[in-house]
Each structure stands twice: as structure tokens, then as C-alpha cells.
Amino acid sequence: MPVRMKDIAADLGISVVTISKVLRDHPDIGEETRQRVLQRVKELHYRPNVTARSLVTGRSYLIGLVVPDLLHPFFAEVAKSLARVIRTRGYSLIIASSEEDPELEEQEIEHMVARGPDGLVIAASTLSSAILQRLDEQQQAYVLIDRKFTGLSANFVGTDDIAVGDLATTHLINRGCKRIAHIRGRENSTGAKRLEGYKRALERGGLNFSDKYVILRETVDIESRLQGNFAMQRLLAMHPKPDGVFCYNDPMAIGAMEAILAAGLRIPKDIAIIGCGNLHYSDLLRVPLSSIDQQSALIGARAGKLMLSIVESKATPQPKSVLLEPHLVERASTARTSRQTAKE
Amino acid sequence: MPVRMKDIAADLGISVVTISKVLRDHPDIGEETRQRVLQRVKELHYRPNVTARSLVTGRSYLIGLVVPDLLHPFFAEVAKSLARVIRTRGYSLIIASSEEDPELEEQEIEHMVARGPDGLVIAASTLSSAILQRLDEQQQAYVLIDRKFTGLSANFVGTDDIAVGDLATTHLINRGCKRIAHIRGRENSTGAKRLEGYKRALERGGLNFSDKYVILRETVDIESRLQGNFAMQRLLAMHPKPDGVFCYNDPMAIGAMEAILAAGLRIPKDIAIIGCGNLHYSDLLRVPLSSIDQQSALIGARAGKLMLSIVESKATPQPKSVLLEPHLVERASTARTSRQTAKE
């Protein structure tokens, strides 16, 4: 039987109101009483009842997070920093993975909404904006992370994805690559904008864009390494082969490197590779991987702060968009001088 | 305003009871009615209300998971497979990280219990058994994963950790290592049993056990790579240096490899390395890492099934312990013939 506030009150011979005030840090209470209450609260392992608190505030103190895959380090890092921020105000994180499956993604969101969370943080993968419009109609607060929707005015925290594609591709051009391929993301904002940045950099660098050098696979966030490997095998079968590849994310880049090394080619001499995400271990790989850092921990933290400000404000605030600047991390997978010519 | 069951009933001109029966797959209802209801439920995006369902069943449909760190791929994999299993029966996962901090771990567990989850899944790191006894007194269902407590009869799903230490160490002995060090885990069951397995294997192999070859760092699950690097630096300063190291987990092993390579030594020729966890990318590292596979996905899935059976049974079932067999995955970091002699 958990200890209740009134048990502590009876035990100390003071009122429940006094104890409640101590726990809410109310200035009314003298220091001696405060210490006595806190001491007893600690000894008896008293936990303020979340249900009771919910009745008072009308909040569930639950924030839902929907991501494509928890095993993808980018989303794990977002989840970790998001949880850390919301915990400071007594909120818990419910997590669901959509596994890049449109039906599952919709189901998971509906299932979460049915729980009545104070807010949802969504990294959409296959989602249509109709579902988000429904959330708007139901006045369900939500923050999108990583993937944005055009034509929808929603709270958003993510990276400038055009800059991601531009930075990565420009870096390959600066390293002397002439035939730069792109293993791209899905047809959502992240995938489309990184592709756009890639095209912009090619144009600025005076290189031709060719459709056949852009490869799209069925999934990009789950089984990414395998998908990156398959995509690279297709690129290796082309004549001429690319001499540089910008991959949508690091796990896909790791798969692409596998395929290149398995074909007996050298990285970066024959083909230079750059990914995105700057994941752990990227620098300890067989060929340390150059990457675009998206500041994943910061995305989670900023989403958490934005969510708290929405949930705890009395009126509905205007939607806010937070765009973080990506930056280049150079490692061995692109470390070639611009004079080296790639072998065909 | 979300659609309610009675809106659908009014819309179709049938009773709420009929709709409820359709949704519970009750045999009373004719196929035509069933199809009409399901069709309308889909069109109107009706979601059975979790709160209403909770009132009937007395369950919250929340399962809490407390892990040291979500970013550690082992725990991310456990979380993913656990969520997948409980989702099939309409349960959601709340996640908290203890960050290997005793106070935070206790707080997070108390905070979760205050939410009234149907069950908790706990990967304890610094936890004392007193907290678990309190959960027992409060009749809070829980399943321990990965770390066990002696003298406590609790539900448990994990790996045979003595076998982990034995397998890893025996493998190093078979590869000709004579001075085998251990970068160990904390003073909990996982850390203690892997150490025990290491000692057993040394004894069976006729090698001396020496305290100075066993290194313990402040944390093992957070900042593991850095901690592994520091531990290895201490081992490298010894005379004679070890020629084989069994590391508590793969991230620590990766840090140890960094330190060895930075010192200009070769893996496995000078020092062979084996970790535990068989994490993603282990085979694409600069030196692909041998490891003991703990079947992390299976741990999550089995914990989920065990939790569902506890939560959904009428009586409190007898505590059950599920111990999975680890197995060896050999890669380049231990690939030397037993005849090679390590350089001092």
C-alpha cells in the first residue's frame, strides 16, 4: 500500500495542506516545518500521485514519441535527449516505432492519441499530412522532428536539409570527384531536400546532374546498411562508375562502403563516400566515415523544450520552426587530394 | 472532437452494445452488420478510448522500461523488441534512462510506479534490492532483464553471464593468449558473473588469475567507449602487458581497440580483443570485433511475453527465470593462430 499525503500529515501532526505546500515549494512554510516534512517524505518513500496531479492540472504528463526505428542511433539519441528535458518537469516519454510502414505509423499515432498524451513528437516517415490535419482538428499538440510537411503550418525542429545535401556534395567536388552519385532518402522533406541540396551543389560546381546516379531503395531507416549495400551494387554496375557517393544517412553509407570494399575497390581513392548523421563509431570503421553532423541530441532537446512551452502555455502558441545548421565532419572516406583521378 | 462509439451507433442506427461486440470480435454478430460497423469505424477514424477500456479492465495498458542508457545499442534493441511484443495486445511502452546514477535510477522507478503501469521491465545498474522489495510489497509487477539479484525471487530474462565470461576467455586461450586481462562490469550480477566465468576459464586453461589484470571503471554502460580506452591505457602501462583482453561489452572493447592502435600495437597480433553484445557495425570496424552474442532482441521479446502473461493472468504467477545461451562470434580481433607469440 503506497504512503499517502494524509498518512504523512497524521504522522507529523500537521495538515495535508501544509505538506502539499512544502512539496510545491510554497513560500508560506517555515524552514523547520519544511525540513521535517521533506525528511519524512524521504523516509517513507512518499510519491506524489500522478493521477491526483492530473486531476488538478488536466494533464496526463505523458509525451508520445513516434520514430521510424529506435535502433537507428539518430532516433535513439533524439529520444534520450528529449526524455531528459521533459523529465525535469515530471513528464514521461511513451515511445512507438513505425518501422517505415505507413499503416503501422498511422495506427501507432492513433493508439497514442487514444491515451490522451499532452503532446506528440513525431519523426514522420511515410505519413500523409491528412493524419496531421486530423491531429489539428482534435487539438492534439504535436511537434514534428526531422521531417517537415509542405503546406502545413506545424511546430518543427530539424536540420536544414538542403544545406546537408549541399555541404556533402560540395565536399566531394572539392575532393576532386567528377561523377557524384546520391543514395537518396524517401519522398519526404528530408529525402527531397537533401536531393535538392545535392543538385544545387552539382550545378554550382559545373557538374551534370543525371537521374541514373540517384538511387532510391524501399527503406532508408530500417535495414539501412543492407539497403545501402544494394544501392551501391547498382552504382558499381554502371559505366562509368561514380567516383563519389553522398549517402542519405550513415548506416546506408556503411553499407555502401561494404559493397565497394567487397568489389575490391579502394575508399576514397576509387570512390569517396560521405554520409549524414555523424553516428557513434563512424570514426572507428574500417575506413573512418566522413559525415554531415545533424546535432541529433540538440534536435531532441529543442523538441522537448518546444513541447513543454506548448503544453504549459494557457493559449495555443503560434507554430514555431527551429532549423539547426548542419556541419561537415571530414574523415578518411573522403580524404583524397583534388588532383587524384579516380580509376574507372 | 474525437468520434465516440455512440456517434457510430447513431450514424448506423444500431446499438452501442452491437458495436462494442463487433470490436471485441463477439460471435453474436452477423457478418453483414460486422462489415458495416468495421467500414464505418475505419471511415470515421474511430479509436477505442483507452481510458474507457482501463475503467473496465482496471489496467493502464502502460509497461515501463528502465534502462541505463537508450543510446547503448543493446538496450535500444531490447526496447524495440519489447515494444513490438506488447503492442500486439494494446500496451504502450514508457521509457526512462537511469544513466547509471543510483539516485536517478531510484527516482525514475518511483516516478514510473506513481503512474500506475501494469508492469515494469528493469535493467538495473546500481539498484539495491531494497527498491525491488518495496515493489513487491506494493504488488507492482516487474521483470528484471540482464541484471539479476541474488536472494531475490523475481521474474528475470537474461543471459547466462558465467557462460559469457567463460566462452570469451576460453576463446582467447584457444588463440594462444597467455596473459589475459578483463575490463570488467560493475559490481552487479552481470559484472560479477562475467568475471567469474573469466576466472573459471583461466583456471581450466592452467593460467594464473591476477587482480591487477582486472580493471574496473566508474561507468560501463554510459561513455563506455571512453572508459574502455582509459582502462586499456592502464593495461598498456603494465609489465608485462596482457596479450588478450576480454571486455565487458562491445563499446568498451571498441575503446580498448582505439587505445591499442593509438599506442602503435597490432590487433590481434600483439593484443587480441573480444567484447560482448555483438552490436551492429562490429564487423565493419577498423579491426572487426569478435564478440559474445547475447541475443538482445530475444531478451526484449521474452521479457515482453513474460510481462504479458503476468499482467493478464488472474492470480500472481510464480516468478520465472529465463536464461538464454550466449554464443561466440569470431572476427579479426582474435584471429591469430595459437602458435603466434605475442610481443611484449
TrEMBL record, chains A, B:
<protein>
    <submittedName>
        <fullName>LacI family DNA-binding transcriptional regulator</fullName>
    </submittedName>
</protein>
<dbReference type="InterPro" id="IPR028082">
    <property type="entry name" value="Peripla_BP_I"/>
</dbReference>
<keyword id="KW-0238">DNA-binding</keyword>
<dbReference type="Pfam" id="PF00356">
    <property type="entry name" value="LacI"/>
</dbReference>
<feature type="domain" description="HTH lacI-type">
    <location>
        <begin position="3"/>
        <end position="57"/>
    </location>
</feature>
<dbReference type="InterPro" id="IPR010982">
    <property type="entry name" value="Lambda_DNA-bd_dom_sf"/>
</dbReference>
<keyword id="KW-0804">Transcription</keyword>
<dbReference type="GO" id="GO:0000976">
    <property type="term" value="F:transcription cis-regulatory region binding"/>
</dbReference>
<dbReference type="Pfam" id="PF13377">
    <property type="entry name" value="Peripla_BP_3"/>
</dbReference>
<keyword id="KW-0805">Transcription regulation</keyword>
<dbReference type="GO" id="GO:0003700">
    <property type="term" value="F:DNA-binding transcription factor activity"/>
</dbReference>
<dbReference type="InterPro" id="IPR046335">
    <property type="entry name" value="LacI/GalR-like_sensor"/>
</dbReference>
<dbReference type="InterPro" id="IPR000843">
    <property type="entry name" value="HTH_LacI"/>
</dbReference>
